Glutathione S-transferase
Amino acid sequence: MLLNTTTSLISTLIRPTNGIQSRVNTDKPAKLLQLYDIENCPYCRLVREALTELDLDALILPCPKNGARFRPELVERGGKAQFPYLVDPNTGVEMYESLDIVTYLFDTYGSGLPLKWKPGRLQTLGSMLASAPRLHRGMRARPGKEPAELLELYSFESSPYARLVREKLCEMEIPYIVRNCGRTLASEWLFPPVRSALDITPKSELDNRRHLLAREGKLSIPYLFDPNTDQGLFESADILDYLDQHYGS
Ligand SMILES: N[C@@H](CCC(=O)N[C@@H](CS)C(=O)NCC(=O)O)C(=O)O
């Protein structure tokens, strides 16, 4: 577990400015965006980073190598097995190509592509470097049982702990709603134990953070809510065990 967490942390440190800082979004879509995704795919990461930065939730449809659940569905839908693929039921837009998707998201749900995203190839290169420490994790299918109702994961893209959970969900081909919980306040950068020690509870500006705090009385990422068992779990190690126990094959 230590090696697992360390390489995930290295991945995060390689992309220190992406997929963490959010802006309050007053222009959220009514219907959930859908993303055909592979967790450790560098192209898919770019899209997930943009979703965090824009404070957008999405239905994640995991498509690991050899996956049988959503890969065939995408080939049927879009014509080829290439990831990421975004479906926006609000506008009817469906598209391949990570940088086109990032531009679409910022144009549609933000105020245009921020400067840091303009050198797209540089962003892609950085994301490739961030994929390297995780090797095959979150890439190959180890199918699990599909839950009847969708799981919800409170996450932000660059969280090293949330990544471990997303990788497992991807390998198990378990679809889930990602509830993005980026940071907008300086106090949100303090680690949860430090916050507790200093008795600081940031008054978050983001709906998902507020909702989680109201539901559980504390805020820590990742948090998995399973409506099938009505259970909510913090702690990546506990969530990984839970997924094995309930949805392992
Ligand atoms: N130019 C594309 C490249 C996408 C791409 O090559 N994705 C890989 C996954 S990292 C893929 O779809 N591979 C086919 C497969 O996994 O079967 C983009 O930026 O979206």
In short: Residues 38, 41, 43, 65, 81-84, 96-99 surround glutathione (CB under 6 Å). The domain at 2-247 is CATH 3.40.30.10 (Glutaredoxin). The longest strand covers residues 33-37. The chain has a mean pLDDT of 95.
